[in-house]
Design goal:
The protein is α/β, with parallel strands linked by helices. It has a single domain, classed as Collagenase (Catalytic Domain), CATH 3.40.390. The chain is built from six helices and eight strands, in the order βαβββαββββαααα. Strands 2-1-5-8-7 form a five-stranded mixed β-sheet, sandwiched between helices. Strand 1, helix 1 and strand 2 form a beta-alpha-beta unit. Helix 1 packs across helix 3. The longest helix is centred in the middle third of the chain and has 20 residues. Bound molecules: zinc ion (ZN) (2 copies). The site of one zinc ion (ZN) has 8 residues, from helix 5.
Length: about 190
C-alpha cells in the first residue's frame, strides 16, 4: 500500500500516534499507516551534545522495504541536531522519501496546555517535514506550515496547513503517490 508511513524510533505513546495518523490522513488526504517500529540508532548519539544526528534516522528510514512510492515520517522522543544548528525539530529529504521529527522540544511548559498544544505542535512539525518530502521549500508566510521554525514560538504562530501556493504545489506533487494508491487498489481487487 502506498501513502504515508509513520515509524516510531523508540517508545512513542500509542494514543499520540493514533491522533497524529488520523489528523495527517484528514489533512493530506492520503492513507496513513502507523504500525512501524524501529530502535533508536545509538550510533547517531553525540555524547558531548547528548543529541542524535538527524540524518542517521533518515538513513534508517530509506532501508524500510515495502514502502515504494510512499513517504516515511520517523517520530522520536530524543533530541535531534544537524551540524551547524543547536537543534532541529525535524529533518527531511526534499522531494525524497524520508523525514523525521523529534518530540523533545515540543512539550508545553505549562502542564495545563499539555495535550492539545503538544498534539498541535507535533502535527505542525509532521506536516512541515512531510511537505519537504513532497518537494516543498520553506515559506516566507509566518502562518504557512512550511515556514521554518527557529524556535517553538514560530511553531506556535504557524498553522498546521499550507498557504495557497504550497497547497497547490502539494496537490500537484502528491499525484504519483495517489496514482500508485489507485493502481494498488485495483490490483488488490483483482487478486
Ligand atoms: Zn523545513
Ligand atoms: Zn507557504
Amino acid at each position: 500500500m502506498s501513502g504515508i508511513y509513520l515509524v516510531s524510533f523508540g517508545q512513542i505513546q500509542p494514543e499520540l500516534l493514533n491522533d497524529l495518523s488520523e489528523e495527517l490522513g484528514k489533512r493530506l488526504a492520503l492513507p496513513v499507516i502507523s504500525n512501524y517500529r524501529h530502535t533508536i540508532p545509538e550510533d547517531a548519539l553525540n555524547q558531548e551534545r547528548n543529541q542524535y544526528m538527524a540524518s542517521a534516522f533518515l538513513s534508517k528510514l530509506r532501508l524500510v522495504t515495502g514502502t515504494e512510492n510512499s513517504k516515511l515520517l520517523g517520530i522520536t522522543g530524543v533530541d535531534l541536531y544537524i551540524t551547524g544548528l543547536n537543534f532541529v525539530f525535524g529533518q527531511a529529504h526534499v522531494g525524497g522519501k524520508a523525514s523525521v521529527i523529534s518530540l523533545a522540544r515540543l512539550h508545553p511548559q505549562n502542564a495545563d496546555d499539555m495535550d492539545g498544544l503538544f498534539q498541535e505542535r507535533i502535527l505542525k512539525e509532521a506536516v512541515h517535514e512531510l511537505g519537504h518530502t513532497f518537494g516543498l521549500d520553506h515559506c516566507r508566510d509566518h502562518h504557512c506550515v512550511m515556514h521554518f521554525s527557529n524556535g517553538i514560538a514560530e511553531t506556535d504562530i504557524k498553522a498546521a496547513s499550507f498557504c495557497a501556493r504550497h497547497k497547490a504545489e502539494f496537490e500537484t506533487n502528491k499525484q504519483p503517490v495517489e496514482a500508485e494508491q489507485t493502481r494498488q487498489q485495483s490490483h488488490d481487487a483483482l487478486g
